[in-house]
Every structure is written in C-alpha cells, then in structure tokens.
Amino acid sequence: MIPQDKIKYAKALRSSIAYLENLGYSNIKADFKGYETPKSYHKKGTDIDVTPDIVAEKEGRKHIFDLSLKSERPRLLKSKWLFLNSLSQLKSYRFRLITMRGHYKFTNETIDAIHLDSIKLLKI
After folding, report:
1. CA torsion, points 34, 36, 39, 44, in degrees to nearest 10?
2. Cα–Cα 20 to 30 A to 106, which of 12, 39, 67, 123?
3. φ and ψ at 84, to 5 degrees?
4. What is the pLDDT of residues 86-116, one digit of tens each?
C-alpha cells in the first residue's frame, strides 16, 4: 500500500495484523499506530521512501507483507512490489501480498503486468 492510501485502508491493515498474529507470526513490525515501524528505504534522487506495510517472523525466517488494495497510483505500487521482491530475494526473506475481497482482480492484473507470478497471495 502506498502512503496516500494508509488512512483510507487503516481498518484493512489492522485486520491483516490480527490475521498474521493468529497464524503464529511474531515480532510484528507494522507501519501503523501501536507497532514499531519497519525499516524504510529511500529512493536516491527522489523524495520517495519505501516502507513495507508489515514485517514479521515465523520459524526463524523474516517475512515481508504488503497490502494489495485498489490504488489511485498503481505505477508507484508496482515499483514498490518489484523493490520488495528483489530485497527479499537478496536477503533470503519471504515476500507475500495480502489482499481482500473486492481487490482480487486488481491484484492479479497488477502482478501479471509486472511479471511477478512467483508471489504468493494471502486472501483475507
């Protein structure tokens, strides 16, 4: 999710965090009130900061989660996902997208557009 959509989809982020806690994830960091903020990455030469929505651990492995919800700026969302996917491959993390009912088609079309077929979706 991009920063412009954080307020709009706060309820979805809260329910995603609760879902991950129920699945047994620990040390959850989220870009949300009450949680420690995950590490941000700055895009050189611009004013864009990339922050994963949720970072958690399970069975000793770090997982990066990003919410896939309809957005006004899908191009920025695509570049964020490509960066997070590359980062997770370099550091041996797991990258997953969390999507909800009403956003499946948008998510699948966006993934197909950037050829990231290897990304696994968590459907809530």
Report:
1. 40
2. 39
3. -65, -35
4. 999 999 999 999 999 999 999 999 999 999 9
Residue 34 amino acid letter: G
Q: Which CATH entry fits the domain spanning 3-123: 3.40.1350, 3.20.20, 1.10.3470, 3.30.310?
A: 3.40.1350
For the whole prediction, is pTM greater than 0.85? yes
Residue 106 token pair: 């948008």
Look at phi and psi of residue 27 and say left if phi exceeds 0, alpha if psi is from -120 to 50, else beta: left
Token reading at 105: 């088609």
Measured distance CA(21)–CA(59) in Å, rounded: 13
Closest to 118 measured CA to CA, from 94, 83, 90: 94
With bands split at pLDDT 50, 70 and 90, how would you rate the model's confidence at 117?
A: confident
The structural domains of the chain, with segments of one domain joined by +, span 3-123
Q: In angstroms, rounded to a whole number, what is the distance separating the alpha carbons of residues 114 and 118? A: 11
| Cβ–Cβ under 8 Å, residues 1 and 97 | no
Q: Which amino acid is at 11?
A: K
